[in-house]
Amino acid sequence: MNFFLQGLTMGIAYDAPIGLANLFVINAALTQSRKKSLLTALIIIFFDVTLAFACFFGIGAIMKKFEWLQLIILLVGSLIVIFMGINLLRSQTNDISSSQNEMTIFKTISSAFVVIWFNPQAIIDGSMMLGAFQVTLPNYSYPIFIAGVGIASAVWFILLSFIVSKFKDKFNAKVLRIINLICGVIIILYGGKLLFNFFDLLLG
User: Fold this and answer.
1) SS (H, E, C) the chain
2) 71-125 pLDDT, tens per residue?
3) Residue 106 belongs to what domain range?
């Protein structure tokens, strides 16, 4: 139970800071039906848990070893993230809901995949956090610990989606537009940071 609780608390610490995944879930909860926003949260959970598994077992070390892999992920990831942010900024107040509700399942899955897996900094940070912790654990505790991390991810994103969805009706169209703009700007800044890291790595 101790290892499970350690995984649970580590998982919350891993997911709680505001990042692209949280913004993605918040935006979906604000602009989609509750059913579809929950589906979006479940898709994010799947990719988040698989990334946590990969970090725990050392994918960050592989990325550090192969610089070309970092470059590809940084470039493609930054451009797609910036494009996502621009789309949010371009959406009009009266079509925030309708445009998002038209997202196909494929687009939701591909966007969630990019948000989680095309952020090298998150992969490396996650590897340092989870991978470093792995060294302190006995081998037999790995499944228990990583199960705690996975459950923390599920609880966090489902709760976040539910709470935002529950209270979104209290926001009028103007407030939704402002939130959308804020999310869009932050996402573009994330993408810009990834692009800067790409050129820094390329020229360094």
Assistant:
1) CHHHHHHHHHHHHHHCCCCHHHHHHHHHHHHCCHHHHHHHHHHHHHHHHHHHHHHHCCHHHHHHHCHHHHHHHHHHHHHHHHHHHHHHHHCCHHHHHHHHHCCCHHHHHHHHHHHHHCCHHHHHHHHHHHHHHHCCCCHHHHHHHHHHHHHHHHHHHHHHHHHHHHHHHHCCHHHHHHHHHHHHHHHHHHHHHHHHHHHHHHHC
2) 887 788 788 778 878 877 876 544 444 444 456 788 889 888 988 888 776 777 7
3) 2-203
User: pTM of the prediction?
Assistant: 0.77
Number of domains in the chain: 1
Q: Which two tokens stand for residue 185?
A: 């700007």
Q: What is the token pair recorded at 81?
A: 């993230």
105: exposed, middle or buried (Cβ count in 10 Å: 0-12, 13-18, 19+): exposed
